[in-house]
Design a protein that fits this description.
By secondary structure, this protein is an alpha+beta fold. It has 4 helices and 5 strands. It has a 5-stranded mixed beta sheet. The longest helix is centred in the C-terminal third of the chain and has 46 residues.
C-alpha cells in the first residue's frame, strides 16, 4: 500500500480550504483517508500562523512509515524545517509555449506585410495633399488676387524667355 501525505480539498466554490491527510495513493483526492494531519487555508496571508497547521509528530510518524509527501506538502515541510530543501530546476519555465510562438510568428508576418505596402500608401497620401494644396490655393486666389497677379506675370515672362 503506497501512502501519500497530500491535500484534500474542502470549502465552497472559489473559497478553497484543504485538509492535510495521510491517505492511500489509490484513493480519490477528496475521498477516504487514514488520518487527518492538519489544515491549509490559502486565503489567509502568507505570514499568518493559521495558514498552515500541522501535527508535526504525526507527520514525522507517517514519513517514517514511508509515506511520500506531494510537491506542495513537501514545500510546506521544507518551510517548517522537517525536510531538507530540494534543488529544483525548471529550464523551460520562461520559454513561451507552442501557441504563443505561433502567435508571435503571425504578428511578425503581419508587421512585415504593411512595411511592403507602405510605399503604395505613401504615394496615395502624397497625391492627396497636392490636391488639397490646389484646393487651398483657389480660395486664396479669390481673396487676394493682387498678390497672385505678380506671380502670374512672372510665369508669363518665363514662357516668353523660353520661346
Amino acid at each position: 500500500m503506497a501512502m501519500k501525505i497530500r491535500l484534500a480539498r474542502g470549502g465552497s466554490k472559489k473559497r478553497p480550504f484543504y485538509r492535510i491527510v495521510a491517505a492511500d495513493s489509490r484513493m480519490p483526492r477528496d475521498g477516504r483517508y487514514i488520518e487527518r494531519l492538519g489544515t491549509y487555508n490559502p486565503l489567509l496571508p502568507k505570514d499568518s500562523e493559521d495558514r498552515v497547521k500541522m501535527d508535526m509528530d504525526r507527520v514525522k510518524h507517517w514519513l517514517g512509515e514511508g509515506a511520500q509527501p506531494t510537491d506542495r506538502i513537501s514545500r510546506m515541510l521544507e518551510a517548517a524545517g522537517i525536510l531538507d530543501k530540494k534543488t529544483r530546476n525548471n529550464p523551460k519555465k520562461g520559454t513561451p509555449g507552442d501557441k504563443a510562438v505561433a502567435r508571435a510568428e503571425e504578428k511578425a508576418e503581419k508587421a512585415a506585410a504593411p512595411v511592403e505596402e507602405a510605399p503604395v500608401e505613401e504615394v496615395a497620401t502624397e497625391e492627396a495633399p497636392a490636391e488639397e494644396a490646389v484646393v487651398e490655393e483657389a480660395p486664396a486666389a479669390e481673396e487676394a488676387p493682387a498678390e497672385e497677379a505678380p506671380a502670374e506675370e512672372a510665369a508669363k515672362e518665363e514662357e516668353k524667355a523660353a520661346e
